[in-house]
Write a structure and sequence with these properties.
The structure holds 2 protein chains of 2 kinds. Chain A is an all-alpha fold. Helices cover 76% and strands 0% of the residues of chain A. Chain A has a single domain, classed as Rhopdopsin 7-helix transmembrane proteins. The longest helix of chain A is centred in the N-terminal third of the chain and has 38 residues.
Chain lengths: 215, 212
């Protein structure tokens, strides 16, 4: 088997795996959240936001999978369903919300209450702006800059408060963003890497910090 | 010519009242260092600058400039005034999570004007900033028996409506609005309109008990 054939098979496997595993990971996170709520009586908001991030991610991947592998292709055009740099799509709605929630986690952990809703104001503003003027490019800047900011702040917060969730999500985001930024074989491997890491993370195995420091 | 002179004179009276209200607010702020008073001071300053740009308009002196497709000088002061109107409500209600809403919304409105001369965002934002803060501030002011907050709510509504009326009528309504704001900041409303009956009764009881 040549390298290209292996890459094609790996790419197709990634497509199936992410569409099946991502929703399962999301459900796992929400089950853990529910269990924790029953035990402690309180909602772990960090885990809840991570769950929503995973749900948004699942939304993107499921739509992409449906378009690439099922007859949904006959119902919609490509730029409505999959990743598009020129117009809104189901994928991009999920992506923008993923980035927005990703930015909320470090703000929540750092108790910057006045900044909690800022990413949503920005996303809402861009949606309205696109509907009103048809100008879309602003969204791409938000996705790339927002994702990099989210990764930076999640890593910073992860190390500062020894917060496993924050650091785990940062690594997950980093691997996922690499898929968008890099083309070719490396993208396929990063794709596999974030699926594997996502499973490890959602199962709660990723715990580099044993003790959580709380303020 | 007469119309121009009378418009300038009336606008001058509006500025004079703005300064008086601003002075009262400044004195109150100096004594209690309340952030709401500081914000009101800045708000009044932007209102006064807005009035100066209108005088220049009446006198046909053009100092206007346009950034991009349609972002003009009155948009800048308009956005600052609108932003503060929202900020008052969020500050009074302590809705910390909404503090940056006026900033983000203003950026989108300004971008729309710079890029496409898209006025609808500005108009929509101005309408929201007139009706929502005025209703909420008037309600909070009345509930807490706070004359400044109550009259600020009334002022925002009356001034916001007057800014959309051209000519004499508009200026006269703004004059009335400014008198209302001055009545609020000078303590007149607290003293004669929004009398705290419980507090009055408590003070009376204290005096009666002292006399007895």
């Amino acid at each position: 088997m040549s390298f290209d054939e292996f890459r094609t098979i790996l790419g197709a496997t990634n497509n199936y795996l992410e569409a099946i595993l991502m929703p399962i990971m999301t459900i796992l996170i929400f089950i853990k959240l529910r269990r924790e709520k029953k035990e402690t009586g309180e909602i772990n908001y960090v885990r809840a936001i991570i769950g929503i991030v995973f749900a948004c991610f699942s939304w993107m991947l499921v739509w992409e999978f449906l378009y690439n592998r099922t007859p949904v292709r006959m119902l919609f055009t490509e730029n409505i369903v999959t990743f598009s740099e020129t117009s809104w799509s189901f994928y991009n709605i999920g992506l923008s919300l993923t980035v927005a929630f990703g930015l909320v986690i470090p703000m929540y952990i750092n108790r910057r209450e006045s900044l909690y809703y800022v990413p949503f104001f920005v996303v809402g503003g861009m949606w309205l702006y696109y509907i009103a003027t048809g100008y879309y490019e602003m969204m791409m800047y938000f996705i790339y800059i927002g994702a990099l900011m989210a990764i930076f702040f999640l890593i910073y917060t992860g190390f500062k408060y020894k917060e496993n969730g924050s650091l785990g999500l940062a690594i997950f985001f980093l691997l996922a963003v690499m898929v968008l930024l890099i083309d070719g074989a490396a993208a396929t491997f990063f794709n596999s890497a974030y699926i594997i890491f996502g499973v490890i993370f959602s199962l709660g195995i990723f715990k580099p910090f044993k003790e959580v420091v709380k303020e | 010519m007469i119309e121009m002179i009378s418009s300038v004179v009336l606008e001058g009276i509006v500025i004079f009242l703005t300064i008086l209200a601003g002075k009262k607010i400044h004195n109150t702020w100096k004594s209690n260092k309340n952030k709401l008073n500081a914000m009101m001071g800045l708000y009044i300053l932007f209102l006064a600058i807005g009035s100066i740009t209108r005088i220049q308009e009446f006198m046909n002196i053009s100092i206007d400039f346009t950034i991009g497709a349609g972002f003009q000088i009155y948009h800048i002061f308009g956005l600052l005034v609108i932003g503060f109107q929202f900020a008052f409500v969020f500050y009074v209600k302590e809705w910390k999570r909404f503090y940056y809403f006026p900033v983000v919304a203003s950026i989108f409105v300004a971008t729309g004007l710079i890029q496409f001369d898209f006025q609808y965002f500005f108009v929509g934002f101005a309408l929201l900033a007139t009706f929502i803060p005025s209703a909420l501030l008037a309600y909070i002011g009345n509930k807490n028996r706070n004359g400044i907050v109550f009259m600020l709510g009334v002022f925002i509504l009356v001034n916001g409506l007057a800014l959309n009326i051209r000519g004499f009528v508009g200026i006269i309504i703004r004059l009335v609005a400014m008198v209302m704001l001055f009545a609020g900041t000078s303590g007149f409303v607290d003293k004669y309109l929004l009398i705290d009956k419980k507090e009055k009764l408590r003070l009376q009881n204290v005096w009666i008990s002292k006399i007895v």
